[in-house]
Specification:
0% strand, mainly alpha
């Protein structure tokens, strides 16, 4: 008979693929034509793995252990994982960037309430507050940075040669910023795949006397996120890279640097945020600051999905658990 933990790990890896498929971190680089889609997903995959293994544990612990006050059974965890995976795969296939954090939290809270279990609302309040604060920070940061860049350009640029040198400088800076963002997103988003497993692997590592075992799901999920990004993620990259606002290396730096700062701080302190919404807000802030036309139809579509995602996850979990509970 297959060990339940092995089954759960396998389903979590499916979710990790779905999360990677919905990762739009490299959208500014693609939109500014600094990297091709193929180059972006290849580099992004490697960075995501590193971020997941090195800084993903604290965020995973917050989502996995701190929301629900009572541990879930294997079948309950499976219901959550299947629900979240289905929504993310559907969103990626449609080219719509969904928040993995919103999806996982919505599903986890819904199942806790369905089962009549206690929910730590202080943790939920902190997470929801971060969903509002982080996009605002992304918007404000990118807006102010873009204004500073514009002021710098007016002072520095004297001719076409200066323009070329400046754009080249910012293009290189963009690569640095996107690597930091991908690293942070790997640490933040991996939590949504492995959160339900963290406690089980911690207990296994303790009983076996092998501390590194508790990091195993982070490594496996990081690899699977990379696979999802490479195989399916290009659809989401094209949506955000080209549809929200037209980018140059200069404007892309404002987007990516702001996103990098917000996501890195959140991952470092262990708060699960929506990197998707931070990035979209940074797109809008940069567009407004630079006077570039922003495709608000795309922004509104993403905004509606942001509001609806937790509720869609809750509904999907309710339906799936209703079916599973009857079957068992």
């Amino acid at each position: 008979m297959v060990d339940p933990l092995v089954t759960l790990t396998g389903i979590s890896m499916l979710l990790a693929i779905a999360i990677g498929a919905n990762d739009e971190t490299f959208a500014p680089v693609v939109g500014s034509k600094r990297l091709t889609v193929n180059q972006a997903v290849s580099i992004g995959g490697v960075i995501v793995i590193i971020g997941a293994v090195t800084i993903g544990y604290n965020v995973a612990k917050t989502v996995g252990n701190d929301i629900a006050e009572s541990p879930f059974t294997e079948m309950q965890i499976l219901s959550i994982l299947f629900s979240v995976s289905a929504l993310l795969i559907l969103g990626s296939w449609k080219g719509l960037p969904l928040s993995t954090t919103h999806t996982m939290v919505g599903s986890t809270v819904a199942l806790s309430l369905i089962l009549g279990e206690s929910v730590d609302w202080s943790v939920i309040t902190k997470i929801i507050a971060s969903w509002f604060i982080s996009p605002v920070a992304g918007f404000v940061g990118s807006y102010l940075l873009m204004k500073a860049i514009i002021k710098f350009k007016k002072t520095y640029i004297k001719g076409l040669d200066d323009v070329d040198r400046l754009e080249s400088l910012f293009a290189n800076g963009l690569i640095v910023a996107v690597v930091i963002t991908a690293f942070s997103r790997g640490g933040n988003d991996v939590s949504n795949a492995v959160a339900p497993l963290i406690q089980s692997y911690f207990e296994l590592a303790t009983s076996e006397g092998v501390p590194l075992l508790e990091r195993l799901p982070l490594l496996l999920a990081g690899v699977c996120m990379a696979i999802g990004l490479v195989l399916i993620g290009r659809r989401v990259l094209k949506t955000l890279g080209n549809d929200v606002v037209e980018l140059s290396p200069t404007t892309a730096v404002a987007v990516q640097a702001s996103t990098a700062l917000v996501t890195f701080i959140a991952a470092f302190v262990g708060i699960p945020i929506s990197g998707t919404h931070v990035l979209v807000a940074a797109f809008v802030g940069t567009g407004w600051a630079s006077g570039t036309n922003v495709n608000m139809d795309t922004v509104k579509r993403i905004g509606v999905s942001a509001i609806g995602t937790p509720f869609a996850a809750a509904l999907t979990t309710f339906i799936l658990w209703s079916i599973v509970s009857v079957a068992i």
